[in-house]
């Protein structure tokens, strides 16, 4: 089962692609889609759409998993996340892929076993579980890998 995990944002969208085979999780690729701050919103969203489409075409995941928008005191951040989620949903729909969404709480519970886990605890667990040399950077990349792992774990496929 090939899983594309996404941590959406208009400035940075993290992605992580994992392949689960029997009792092993293989890291296929991970990184961040970064848009310059001087780009217009339309240009940023168009770039995000193009890059997500390219990931879907290149890796042909079985499932796409994305962090769900959560209540955020910063309205500007919440709107930005919502806009990028909409673009991702469109790209996934047009590529006829299934999408599943997790809340940050669900990801934390799945990866660390504690709903109030810190970002550093999640990053450490991602590094350890996936046998990575370093914690993936930027943070959005580690979050995307955590989201993909959470989906694998939610399927009752713990390693």
Automatic annotation (TrEMBL):
Belongs to the RuvC family. The keyword Aminoacyl-tRNA synthetase does not apply. Keywords: Cytoplasm, DNA damage, DNA recombination, DNA repair, DNA-binding, Endonuclease, Hydrolase, Magnesium, Metal-binding, Nuclease. The keyword Methyltransferase does not apply. The active site is at 7, 67, 140. Transmembrane segments: none annotated. It comes from the Bacteria. Homodimer which binds Holliday junction (HJ) DNA. The HJ becomes 2-fold symmetrical on binding to RuvC with unstacked arms; it has a different conformation from HJ DNA in complex with RuvA. In the full resolvosome a probable DNA-RuvA(4)-RuvB(12)-RuvC(2) complex forms which resolves the HJ. One of its GO terms (molecular function) is crossover junction DNA endonuclease activity. It is found in: Cytoplasm. Its cofactor is Mg(2+). The RuvA-RuvB-RuvC complex processes Holliday junction (HJ) DNA during genetic recombination and DNA repair. Endonuclease that resolves HJ intermediates. Cleaves cruciform DNA by making single-stranded nicks across the HJ at symmetrical positions within the homologous arms, yielding a 5'-phosphate and a 3'-hydroxyl group; requires a central core of homology in the junction. The consensus cleavage sequence is 5'-(A/T)TT(C/G)-3'. Cleavage occurs on the 3'-side of the TT dinucleotide at the point of strand exchange. This is Crossover junction endodeoxyribonuclease RuvC. One of its GO terms (cellular component) is Holliday junction resolvase complex. It catalyses: Endonucleolytic cleavage at a junction such as a reciprocal single-stranded crossover between two homologous DNA duplexes (Holliday junction). NCBIfam families: PRK00039.2-1 (NF000711), ruvC (TIGR00228). One of its GO terms (biological process) is DNA recombination. Its EC number is 3.1.21.10. The lineage of its organism: Bacteria, Pseudomonadati, Dictyoglomota, Dictyoglomia, Dictyoglomales. It comes from Dictyoglomus thermophilum. InterPro entries: RNaseH-like_sf, RNaseH_sf, X-over_junc_endoDNase_Mg_BS, X-over_junc_endoDNase_RuvC. Mg(2+) 1 binds at residues 7, 140. Binds 2 Mg(2+) ion per subunit. Mg(2+) 2 binds at residue 67.
């Amino acid at each position: 089962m090939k899983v594309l995990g996404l941590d959406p944002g208009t400035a940075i969208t993290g992605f992580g692609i994992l392949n689960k085979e029997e009792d092993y999780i293989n890291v296929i690729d991970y990184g961040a889609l970064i848009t310059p701050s001087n780009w217009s919103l339309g240009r940023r969203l168009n770039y995000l759409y193009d890059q997500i489409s390219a990931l879907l075409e290149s890796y042909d995941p079985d499932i796409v998993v994305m962090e769900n928008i959560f209540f955020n005191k910063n309205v500007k951040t919440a709107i930005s996340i919502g806009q990028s989620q909409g673009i991702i949903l469109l790209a996934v729909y047009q590529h006829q892929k299934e999408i599943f969404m997790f809340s940050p709480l669900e990801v934390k519970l799945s990866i660390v076993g504690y709903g109030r886990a810190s970002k550093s605890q999640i990053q450490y667990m991602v590094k350890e579980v996936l046998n990575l040399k370093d914690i993936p950077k930027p943070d959005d990349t580690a979050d995307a890998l955590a989201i993909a792992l959470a989906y694998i774990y939610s399927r009752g496929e713990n390693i």
